[in-house]
Amino acid sequence: MYTVIDEIMNCIKCNVEIPPKRLEILPGTKTCVNCSTESAKRGVPVMRGTGDHTWVDLEVLTQEQYEEYEELKTPPSKRTKFDSSTDKDNLKGPFNIIDPED
Ligand SMILES: [Zn+2]
């Protein structure tokens, strides 16, 4: 025997089962998170103000903006995307040292 739960909804776009928690928060939703026109949002804490007057604000970013933010936050040496001119033998790191005598 099994229990029939009448609240199970499948996404109208990809037919994936919509998580009950999503239905709970968004009753009447017909799409899963991936198919929703509202893309996932990320909250990023940001420091605002200057000097003694600073506060932490929460910036809401789209998934795309968040990825850009993550990339900016990551030191160049740890980024997954490397400049094609950089190879493992380049001990100068990500910066080009320009010799003025040259
Ligand atoms: Zn879907």
Q: How many individual helices?
A: 2
Rg result: 23 Å
Helix and strand run: HEEH
Strand order of the largest sheet: 1-2
In summary, what is this structure?
The protein is α+β, with helices and mostly antiparallel strands and 102 residues long.
Write the layout of secondary structure elements.
Layout: H1 20-25, E1 41-50, E2 53-62, H2 63-73
Antiparallel strand pairs: 1-2
Residues 11, 13-14, 16, 31-32, 34-35 line the site of zinc ion.
Fold and architecture overview:
The chain has 102 residues and is of the alpha+beta class. Among the domains are: 33 residues, no CATH class; 38 residues, no CATH class. 17% of the residues lie in helices and 20% in strands. It is built from 2 helices and 2 strands. Strands 1-2 form a two-stranded antiparallel sheet. It is elongated and about 80 Å long. It starts with 19 loop residues before the first helix and ends in a 29-residue tail after the last helix. The mean pLDDT is 77. Bound molecules: zinc ion (ZN). The site of zinc ion (ZN) has 8 residues, from loops.
